[in-house]
Design brief:
With 142 residues, this protein is an alpha/beta fold. The protein contains 6 helices and 5 strands. Strands 2-1-3-5-4 form a 5-stranded parallel beta sheet, sandwiched between helices. It binds D-ribose (RB5).
């Protein structure tokens, strides 16, 4: 499975940690930057990530900024993107099962590395349940 990942400066270290974790676990990873922790603007990187998810270059995206909030707001401006900011593993499972989320956003200043890995695991290993949830997702798209 191919996963896109991006961050801003505040999320850079966690991006590198999660990228390595994904590769070590057999995922193919496309890194949309940044390449260092110099100050950048998260909407620029959210845009690269959303384009790759919409074009199906990658199946899912992971975005990381300080709180995860800015990245999440920016990602959800793109039609077809259902981005979820998660700080716990249960929410990560449920947003795949109920919302068919296609981008997971994380706050590097909010959660630690091990919790972030657990959240990523649950997100990537949970399937959309369809049914009544599909009707609701369709209404979001409309
Ligand atoms: C950067 O200082 C910070 O504002 C950003 O990473 C993010 O938390 C915004 O939502």
């Amino acid at each position: 499975m191919k996963i896109g990942i991006t961050s801003d400066h505040a999320g850079y270290d966690l991006k590198e940690t999660i990228k390595k974790y994904l590769i070590d676990n057999g995922y193919e990873v496309v890194d949309f930057g940044p390449e260092n922790a110099n100050s950048v603007d998260y909407p620029d990187f959210a845009k690269k990530l959303t384009k790759s998810v919409i074009s199906e270059e990658v199946k899912y995206g992971i975005g990381i900024c300080g709180t995860g909030i800015g990245m999440n707001i920016a990602c959800n401006k793109a039609k077809g993107i259902r981005a979820a900011l998660c700080s716990d593993p249960l929410s990560a499972s449920l947003t795949r099962q109920h919302n068919n989320a296609n981008i997971l956003n994380l706050g590097a200043r909010i959660i630690g590395d091990e919790l972030a890995k657990n959240i990523v695991d649950n997100f990537l290993n949970s399937e959309f349940e369809g049914g009544r949830h599909q009707n609701r997702v369709n209404k979001i798209e409309d």
